[in-house]
Each structure stands twice: as structure tokens, then as C-alpha cells.
Amino acid sequence: MALNKTENENVRNLGFCLHTKYQGKGLGTKAVEKAIHMAKEELEAKKLLAGTADSNIPAVKVLKHFGFVKIDSAICAFCRDADDKPISFSGSSYVLHLRDF
Ligand SMILES: CC(C)(COP(=O)(O)OP(=O)(O)OC[C@H]1O[C@@H](n2cnc3c(N)ncnc32)[C@H](O)[C@@H]1OP(=O)(O)O)[C@@H](O)C(=O)NCCC(=O)NCCS
């Protein structure tokens, strides 16, 4: 879990990733809940941002479970294949206003 700083001190960027061995057992949901509480209570953030591929069903479910709202979608590409063509996917950004949490 990561609650990275952004240009705005009231806004944190939530990153979440579990080792494959621990996925699909409810731990991601629990860990993200803990991170949201930490962002609100300890870091006093007002807003959390997050992003994931639209096809990443567990990640999208976790974000929606906690009330994250989609704010943007785009075709993204972080890597290139063996022919040097971009490997693209549809991704979305989400926001959670912590006053609502
Ligand atoms: C995304 C991630 C943190 C979710 O954590 P998790 O522990 O695997 O997910 P949970 O077990 O808490 O399940 C969350 C929801 O997704 C569903 N789910 C979990 N794995 C699933 C799968 N393989 N297919 C479909 N649904 C799945 C669960 O049923 C649950 O749904 P519910 O809320 O309706 O009950 C974890 O899978 C992960 O680290 N993935 C790799 C990194 C990643 O994708 N990070 C996200 C942003 S880049």
C-alpha cells in the first residue's frame, strides 16, 4: 500500500498491490480500508486519487466498494512489445472525498 504525496498537500495518491499468493482472499479490501483511514486520520488528507486498468476487476471492485468515483478514462501504455509497439490498455482514474468516508 502507498499513500504518495501529490502537488496538493491535501491530496494523496493511493497505490495498492498484493503478492499473487495473497490475492483474492479479502486482504486487499482490508488493506485499502486501513489505508483510507490512515490517510484521513493520520495524514489529514481530504482527497484520495487512485487508478487502475478497467479490466482489473478486483481493483475496480475494491475502489467502488469504498465509494471511489471514476473521474477520467484514457488509453494508456507503459510498456512496449518485442516489435517496439506500445502495449495499450483502457485505464481510469478515481477519486474519494474523505469527508464522505
Ligand atoms: C487489486 C488487489 C489489491 C485486490 O485485492 P484482493 O485481496 O485480491 O481482493 P479481495 O479479495 O479483497 O476482493 C475484492 C473484490 O474483488 C473480487 N475478486 C477478487 N479476485 C477476483 C478475480 N480474480 N476475479 C473476479 N473478481 C475478483 C472479490 O470477490 C471482491 O468482490 P466483492 O467486493 O464483490 O466481494 C489485488 O488483487 C492486487 O494486488 N492485484 C495486483 C495489483 C493491482 O492490480 N493493483 C491495483 C491497481 S494498479
CATH class term: Alpha Beta
Provide the list of bound ligands, each named once.
coenzyme A
H/I helix tally: 2
Element pattern in H and E: EEHEHEE
Q: Kindly estimate the percentage of residues that lie in beta strands according to DSSP.
A: 35-45%
**If you average the pLDDT, what whole number results?**
97
Radius of gyration: 15 Å
Considering DSSP H and I runs of 4 or more, what fraction of the residues is helical?
Answer: 10-25%
- Overall spatial form: globular
Which structural class matches the secondary elements?
A: alpha+beta
Q: What is the domain total for the residues?
A: 1
CATH architecture title? 3-Layer(aba) Sandwich
Structural key phrases:
Aminopeptidase; single chain; 2 helices; alpha+beta; binds coenzyme A; five-stranded mixed β-sheet
Question: Mind explaining what this structure looks like?
Answer:
- The chain is an alpha+beta fold and 101 residues long.
- It has a single domain (2-100), classed as Aminopeptidase (3-Layer(aba) Sandwich).
- The chain has helices spanning 27-42, 57-65, and strands at residues 2-5, 11-15, 47-53, 69-80, 86-97.
- The chain has a 5-stranded mixed β-sheet, with helices on one face.
- Strand 2, helix 1 and strand 3 (47-53) form a beta-alpha-beta unit.
- The longest helix is centred in the middle third of the chain and has 16 residues, at 27-42.
- It is globular.
- The two termini are 18 Å apart.
- The relative contact order is 0.20.
- The model has no long low-confidence stretch (mean pLDDT 97).
- Bound molecules: coenzyme A.
